[in-house]
Design goal:
The chain is globular, with a radius of gyration of 12 Å. Helix 1 crosses helix 4, helix 2 packs parallel to helix 4 and helix 3 runs parallel beside helix 5. The relative contact order is 0.26. It is built from 5 helices and no strands. The N and C termini lie far apart (27 Å). By secondary structure, it is an all-alpha fold.
Length: 97
């Protein structure tokens, strides 16, 4: 559970780095996709989509509460699909730069 908490924190930092587009809408969609994943291959695909979205939307904004909840779900579901928390944090950190 500690790793998931760290993961959520890192994802929240990535979200905070995002900066006019409603981020919560896309993040909810990505969270839904990640929670449908049954294996790491699917999780990696969603993680790649998330990383690309972060790069493409550096000034995204929106409903912060919904976005935070979506990021928490994303982190939880991606780790449950088999993505290592370290890989998730590294990918999100690199995308936010």
């Amino acid at each position: 559970m500690r790793r998931v908490t760290s993961l959520v924190f890192a994802a929240s930092l990535a979200l905070a780095a995002l900066g006019c587009k409603d981020a919560s809408v896309e993040l909810v969609k990505l969270a839904d996709k990640s929670c449908a994943c049954k294996d790491a291959e699917c999780g990696k695909k969603v993680l790649g989509e998330l990383a690309q979205w972060i790069k493409d939307n550096p000034r995204a904004r929106g409903d912060e509460q919904k976005a935070e909840e979506a990021v928490q779900r994303l982190g939880k579901c991606l780790t449950e699909s088999g993505i290592a928390p370290k890989e998730l944090m590294q990918t999100l950190g690199a995308a936010a730069q």
